[in-house]
Amino acid sequence: MPYFIILVIFIFFTLISYFILNILIKRTDPGIKRLKDVDKLFDKSVPEEEKIKEESESKKLGAGIRKISSRISSFSKTDEKKLSGIQKALIQAGYQKHEHLQNFMSLKVFLSFISLVALIMSGVISGKSLAIIIFLGLIAGLIGYIVPNIFLSLKIQQRQEQIASGLADALDFLVICVEAGMGLNSAIVRVGKELKLKCKPLAEELLVVNREIRTGLPRENALRNLSERNRVQDLKILAGSIILSDRLGTNISDTLRAQSDSLRTRIRQRAEEQAAKAGIKLLFPLVIFILPALFLIILGPGILLFIKEILPVIQK
Q: What is the mean pLDDT of the chain?
């Protein structure tokens, strides 16, 4: 019973932390903020003074949350090398601001502290020994500190899968734009805007490339940053081929067309590979779950009849 209470408390505080993190991300998302600003501009029912008051209150609340988050994250003593690795993982998951790193570290500390306190309290209530309480409390704190990393890894994997699934359509659209006479930079912007509904993560990455180019960064460096921010192998191949085409001065439309055909071929080969593995993957559930039940249904009545006939003979 105490362990069930611990599990319920841990799940409860995990869900609360998840919702708090979502609220913080939505408050710092520039797209959502821009949409709210545009909506307020066209909302004539709210007086201007109330709009200014709401904006000031939201800014104060956001500043207060960031202040609390910074104080909580200050308890986490992490070296700069590890922080840079966490920052890179957050960027791969789609969280590119420095505030996201602060919020993530504060969430780790908060979950670790809550897990530790909850298990110690349940151990005291259940009357466990001090050594067991301390040992289980440290384990619970360590688990609470590790859980956000697991969710972050799942988020990265989900985002990379979305990028990989939308890359073929984006490349085809890019080929059409370039062959229609648009420059590569303009085509990247157009594809990024048109792809928001189909594959938002890839659209965001393409728009980031455009922003880096507009700020004066060479296109080669912007494409290298694109490949470093993502673990998608097809995207790295595409960025490398465009960089090589720029260096050699070849026709960019021919390069994109060749990459599009090559990408479609790789996608078909992966599908064929997964189809070939399906038989082997079905073997394990077949042997573990289906065959024992089949043997029980077929041989069960015979075994029972055999026991019924042989048992009296043995007893005599």
A: 78
